Amino acid sequence: MSDIEFYSRFLENLQTSQKWPGPYMFKFIIKEKEIEVNEIKKIFIGMKPVFSVKKSSKKNYTSLSVSLISKSPEFVIDIYKKISRFKGVISL
């Protein structure tokens, strides 16, 4: 599946799954040595996010959850696209 197909299907799911604007939780798994959690947090400046950070037992990975009020499905997709530029980050 191409990125265009993936995001098109994701957009449809977001449009039908809830009302917008509304709450949305982003979830990411970050390889510890690849990128700092704070680099990802910078993307959410000014959006009133609530962060939850948890390290894996061996401290190789960090789980980052970000809750905020998202204005639209397109906004959610835009955030995921920005995060996808970071090496070592898995979006869930």
Question: What do you see in this structure?
Answer:
- Helix content is 34%, strand content 32%.
- It has 92 residues and is α+β, with helices and mostly antiparallel strands.
- A four-stranded antiparallel β-sheet has the order 2-3-1-4, with helices on one face.
- A hairpin with a 5-residue loop joins strand 2 and strand 3.
Short description, anyone?
By secondary structure, this protein is an alpha+beta fold. The protein has three helices and four strands; from the N terminus they run H-E-H-E-E-H-E.
Regions with pLDDT < 50 over 5+ consecutive residues?
none
Counting helices, strands and paired strands, the structural category is: alpha+beta
Share of helix among residues? Answer: 25-40%
Number of helices in the DSSP assignment = 3
Q: Measured on Cα atoms, how large is the radius of gyration? A: 14 Å
Tell me the major beta sheet. 4 strands, antiparallel
* Percent range for β-strand residues: 25-35%
Instruction: Calculate the terminal CA-CA distance, rounded to whole Å.
Output: 17 Å
The total beta strand count reads: 4
Name the helix and strand elements from N-terminus to C-terminus, one letter apiece: HEHEEHE
Mean pLDDT: 92
Strand arrangement, largest sheet? Answer: 2-3-1-4
3D shape: globular
